[in-house]
Amino acid sequence: MMSMSTPEVLPTRDPLYYISDGNIVLQVENTLFKVHRSMLVKDKSTFDSMFSLEAYTQNTEDALMSNNSEGESDENPIRLQDKAEEFSALMWSLYSLPAEIAFSMTAQANDLQLIHLARIAHKYQFRSTESWALGALTTYHSTATGSPSVQNLVQITELSILCDCKALLNAAVAKWKRLLGEGRAVAVAIGVAERLNLRSLLGLAYYSMMLKGREAWDSDPHLNSRQRIRLLSGHYNLIKLCEDLPSSPPRLTHDHSCVRKGKCKNAFAAFWRLILTTKDAGLVGQVLKLQSADLLAKVMLAESIIRAFAEGNISTLDLSESGDMHEKCLQIALHAAQDKVKEVQDNLVDLFSDVV
């Protein structure tokens, strides 16, 4: 019995960038592009050296005898190991009119096209094109109000690392934090942050997943067993830190003009303990409504209460148990609380270890 072979799928010409007067044919995946060599060698790209090597080879006797050199016909194109959509984005950047380019800097820009462009421009060393595309993506994702698709956000984050673009990475991380705040794509964020070694994002992602609770960890198909162990470890560590938090105020240094010495330190310690343990139903009592392991929310709320107190929005009568503090020491206490918030944020990832 004869076996049926799969018919060969012939490459098709790109509808936009198979240009009639082009002088070089390239095949990318199953798409043929016919463009101008002069466009490809712009910006001292890799194509410049590629074609220079080709020209050198064609000076040999064998090449002179050939009637069909590579890249001169659809039957013998130059084959590139790229994605057709990425190469199309590169051609768009080389052939577009100024108005089309300007549109890519607006809120209606096609960020996926810019991602494709930046990635292939990086590969072929179109330096100015890469820099422009990264700048356009950074502007777009720093100013756009909506959230990108999770798939696009993953690509943007990867691209920022590939191209070492800190501004784009900061914009991407800000988008991830917004998603985490909404409880979305948390497991995906964990995976991306682990793979790219993004410590601050990884800590927040684990923290966000921990707050969802054990049932959510066990049912999420994107989490592996090691990550679930990390979540258990983080939950245990955070519970312990929250239990110790009321008796562990941020370190207070006195202002040089303060003559009260230990009194300010004791007053601040009492103030800190009062914030984190009071059962009053007012602003301070909000701490008790938080999850028992929600360390970050507790220190952030404590910082906001100390700021309100320092700015005179909470009277001394409301917090009379804390005693009096020197005005300048109170400002120092506020800075200490702010430093505490940053310390917790920076070190969250270390609480989620592989050992429970």
UniProtKB/TrEMBL annotation:
Q: Which domain of life is it from?
A: Eukaryota
Q: Which InterPro entries match?
A: BTB/POZ_dom, SKP1/BTB/POZ_sf
> Could you tell me which residue ranges the BTB domain spans?
22-103
Instruction: Show the PROSITE patterns listed in the entry.
Output: BTB
Q: What is this protein called?
A: BTB domain-containing protein
Organism of derivation: Mycena metata
